[in-house]
Task: structure prediction
Amino acid sequence: MSCHEPLLTVNEVSTRFRTKRGHLRAVERVSLQVEAGETLGLVGESGSGKSVLGQTIMGLVSHGGNTTVTGQVLFEGRDMQSLSRKDQQRLWGKDIAMVFQDPMSALNPFKRIGTHITESLRAHLGLDKKQARERAIELLRKVRIPEPTRRIDQYPHELSGGMRQRVVIAMALACDPKLVIADEPTTALDVTVQKQILELLDSLRTETRMAGILISHDLGVVSGQTDRVAVMYAGRVVETAPTRQLFTTPRHPYTEALLAAVPRLEQDPHTRLESIEGGLPDMTRPPAGCAFASRCKYTQQKCREVVPGLSASADTAGARHPHEVACHFPLGGPAVAELGIPTVAAVDDRVLEMEAI
Result:
């Protein structure tokens, strides 16, 4: 791989599932890149296609039958879609790993914690039973599980939710992968444990220089843990930018609405939170134009008729990581200003508040 070539390149990837109502467009023509050592945040509400995209990148979405995957996923220049199932499996754990949302579904209740970790070590690194056990204990210690020599022989149900999530992280990191996809890794955890897990992931990323994709519906999670953010809506990426830039100067109305829904520290606890009226469109029958048009306060006729493409804003065109938005009338532009509708100011203080939460 060239030193200038991204670790991961996703080109026009679409994932569709055949249902009784027709083809469900879960992911639609998504393109993105992840460089070695950086973390990309993937955000959006439930049903936006984040998890399906992560599974498609990993190659976990089965081809054929009721599923269609098109486009190209390149990992270190290799086309993941053209690899045989066996060749893909050789990459799982060793080069690309995934931290799943629910540790109880990711862990076999009939297997001890040690077995979950040592299987990958023996398969990919060729360690013998003793070496694999020693490495597994070291990994449990690395993810800050107390008494690792005792915990390694326990079953998943004997551990707390936070500990189980740490085990899943240890499994993902076992073979020192170059890319880890973390799918909502803190969803089922309380706030204190969430903070611990996020700090753990961040410190491990810094220590190992691994790249990451952090999938979350929580803007507070990605604000302090990522280098860049891609916002997804109805299967498409609608905005992408360096993290602080996206939070301070959102260009897409959906991003603005997500930011407006974030509680402020100075707010009265009884203040009603902002919400986004309506819901995601039926992606078996997608709208003719912008999928967000029915929920957007800036909608004009063109929005209902033409799907907007992702393009760089004029002030960042030519930048290594430009601020891109899929909107006919992006925020900050003259067309929106002429409507006379007040926009939500996303300032640095909001980013700092979310990082503090």
The longest strand covers residues 22-34. The two ends are 39 Å apart (CA to CA). The CA atoms of residues 125 and 175 lie 7 Å apart. The mean pLDDT is 86.
